[in-house]
Write a structure and sequence with these properties.
single chain; Rossmann fold; five-stranded parallel sheet; globular; cytoplasm; ATP binding; cholesterol metabolism
Length: 199
Amino acid sequence: MEARVSQPELILVFSGKRKSGKDYVTALIQDRLGPEVCCVLRLSGPLKQQYAQEHSLDLDQLLGPGLYKEQYRADMIRWGETRRRQDPGFFCRLATKGAWQPVWVVSDARRLTDLQWFWSEFPRQTQSVRVQSSEETRKQRGWSFTAGVDDAESECGLDSGVEFDWIITNEAAAPSLDKQLQPILKLAEEAASSPISDS
């Protein structure tokens, strides 16, 4: 496996329900910090790539937001769970391979084992962030409950038992995202400007 070019100074591990706005929030952070400072890592990317390869599917469509991905989601979840039981860090290692920026933003942690891997491998650098939205807001964004998906570990694994370092409320009635993200961006900017260490 290809080694990382350098150690990160900060890792922001994001989680949240489907349609909570994780991708929107993490893209906003990368936009503010810039691609030289911050990379967005998706644990689902390597999972979908491997799944597409083994099942002869269209990877671009699996990575997109459309119905193609949704028709394979339940089976892909089962397949991914089997892989994780064999090796809990498998997808985390694939997602971080080749990352060189000082700030990593993991956009889609879904299980306690995802967080545990980052806490274990990068204890000093890892901060957990939960993105929350009401069911009503998520429905307005196109979410509807799907049995076998929304009640699976991939959606519920981090609903309890985790004390998040940061909680972002992604709702129209909540304080602006800019205001909520200000302390996280400040932390990221400080981390990016600190001397590189070998932790």
